[in-house]
Design a protein that fits this description.
Layout (H helix, E strand, L loop, with lengths): L1 E4 L4 H13 L4 E4 L5 H10 L7 E3 L5 E3 L1 H11 L12 H29 L7 H21 L13 H16 L6 H12 L1 H23 L1
Parallel strand pairs: 1-2
Antiparallel strand pairs: 1-3, 3-4
Helix pairs in contact: 1-3, 1-6, 1-8, 4-5, 4-6
Bound molecules: glutathione (GSH).
Length: 216
């Protein structure tokens, strides 16, 4: 199965974290979101133009990072669970925390980052709203992480897959130094082999991109 992804995309990192945590192999298909031609070609496969996107050999496809993780949970039941199989309340909590990480953290961080690096027009109202959401997420997480290593308890879940990738960019646009448990969580995340593997691929690309911007 092919996973269409972009190397700097947090939502791609989220799906890839799940694959690595579960030890499920996939064929990575890089989409160059910066190229109009590549985008046009990709939109023929996935009309939304968004990554990640999973395409099976039989043509069955799964868009959206959360749906991809749900799909992996169903198709590979004997791999480590990212959504608890038992305890309806626990699974619901993971799904809620996943939504929270996507909507009130990942997307606001992308908004702040794209404004910061000039890929999105400056808009102070949108930036303020994004900062408010991020601070809300930090406050909520900082309380939870005071007594547990991962967002939903002692096990690494889909909620962590959703939250960790944007923390990389959050260091630049919304530092979390005032939230020591979030900072400790980020330290733990960086030791996770699944995340190390993803970061080893994207960080050099990010650094090169930033160096180019400084020269330009
Ligand atoms: N809700 C989607 C969000 C995906 C998303 O926004 N991906 C970004 C990259 S991080 C993207 O494809 N951006 C390209 C575009 O918006 O045209 C998911 O969870 O997969």
């Amino acid at each position: 199965m092919k996973l269409y992804y972009s190397p700097l995309s947090t939502f791609s990192h989220k799906a890839m974290l799940a694959f690595h945590e579960k030890g499920v192999a996939f064929t990575p298909e890089l989409v160059d979101l910066g190229s109009q031609d590549a985008r046009a070609a990709y939109e023929k496969i996935n009309p939304t133009g968004k990554v990640p996107f999973l395409l099976m050999d039989n043509g069955w496809h799964v868009p959206e990072s959360t749906s991809i993780i749900e799909y992996l949970e169903e198709e590979f039941p004997n791999t480590p669970r990212l959504i608890p199989a038992t305890g309806a309340g626990t699974a619901r909590q993971v799904r809620f925390m996943d939504r929270m990480a996507d909507l009130y953290f990942n997307e606001p961080i992308i908004e702040l980052l794209l404004q910061r690096i000039g890929l999105r027009a400056q808009d102070s109202a949108r930036a303020d709203r994004a900062r408010n959401y991020v601070q809300m997420a930090y406050g909520f997480w900082n309380t939870r992480l005071a007594t547990q290593p991962w967002l939903c308890g002692s096990a690494f879940t889909m909620a962590d897959c959703a939250a960790i990738p944007a923390l990389f960019y959050a260091q630049i646009v919304a530092p979390f130094a005032g939230h020591p448990n979030v900072a400790a969580y980020w330290q733990r995340a960086q030791e996770r082999p699944s995340y190390k593997r993803i970061r080893a691929e994207f960080e050099p690309i990010w650094n090169a991109r930033m160096a180019q911007q400084r020269v330009a």
